[in-house]
Amino acid sequence: MDGRNMNTNAIPVKLLAVTTVLLASSTVQADYRFGDFTTDRTVVFSDEAALYAAPDPNSSILIQLPVGTPVTIPEGGSGEYNSDGLTSYWYKAVYQSDDSEFTGFIPGCDLAMSDMILDGDTLFLFTVTGFNEESSQFIGRIRIISSGDILAEIEVDPMGRSFGQGFYEYNTECLLRDPDGLTGVKNLVELSFLYPACGYANYDVLFAWTGSDLITGPMGYSVAEAGCYHANSRYILPSDSAGTLNEVVVETIMEEFNDDTMDYYETERTVTAFKWDGTKFTGRSFLDAAE
Question: How many Cβ atoms sit within 10 Å of the Cβ of residue 245?
Answer without folding.
Answer: 11
